[in-house]
Amino acid sequence: MFHAAATPGVMISSQSLRLPLRRTFHATAFIQRRRLVPKTPSVEEAVLNILHNNPTPPPPQDGIRLILSCLARNEPGVISRVADILQSKSFNIESLVAAHTTTPGLSRMTVALNGDENQIQQAKSELEELEPMWAVLDYTHTRLVERELLLMRVSTAGPEAYQSRYEEWEEDDNYEQDNDLISASKKLRETSAHLRALTELTGLFGGRLLDVASDSVIIELCSKPHRISSFVKLCKPFGIIEASRTGVMALPRSPLYDDLDKKEEEELYEVDATTLPPG
User: Which stretches are annotated as coiled coil (predicted)?
Assistant: First the structure.
């Protein structure tokens, strides 16, 4: 197809008209790509960036975290007597987990608390003096395997839905959900997006979904206490309805030995018979 030019008798094709436009478009895209290339920071800028993104250390606590493992007979009132002794020493009990062991009649209590390390020996001696107590183990400075179980119900409809629902329950006991505020399709898309995000977040922490309802899910997570606390903080924007934590359960790690360590240990405790007295 040809077009008439301003000069009489000269015809210009449409293909020749598109050529400058294509060149202009490619030149603009090339300039934009050059602008998107990140600038290499200087040494001062890199150091300031690292300092800015470095997390601040937590404030110092008054006491240290102590862990005791108590072996006692399975009798009524043992837990209350243990709690009374720790309370008399001004210990703040973080968690107390008691359960049966594989041996009939023997129970094990794992106590995690915060307090002064100097008073732990006094509390330990008083706990050992209890009649049903067999032994008290101090795991404060021991390498441990710690685990805690979390069961948490999280909203998949968003925190706004439950916040508005609670406000309506306070105003009127006969609460009826208002479907005019949010359409059904939009609500379904938001619920699916929240459910997908919670599933991915739970998988990253090694947990799993135990129950899925129309507007909430129940999550199970077994991990270290500080890791569970981090997971709870990340789930708060979704809207936590209720949560239950079992408390800390701990066992000491077994030491690792190799053949070289065994030989050195045998040589250390080997006794020369020639150095012994006669007889």
Answer: 106-133
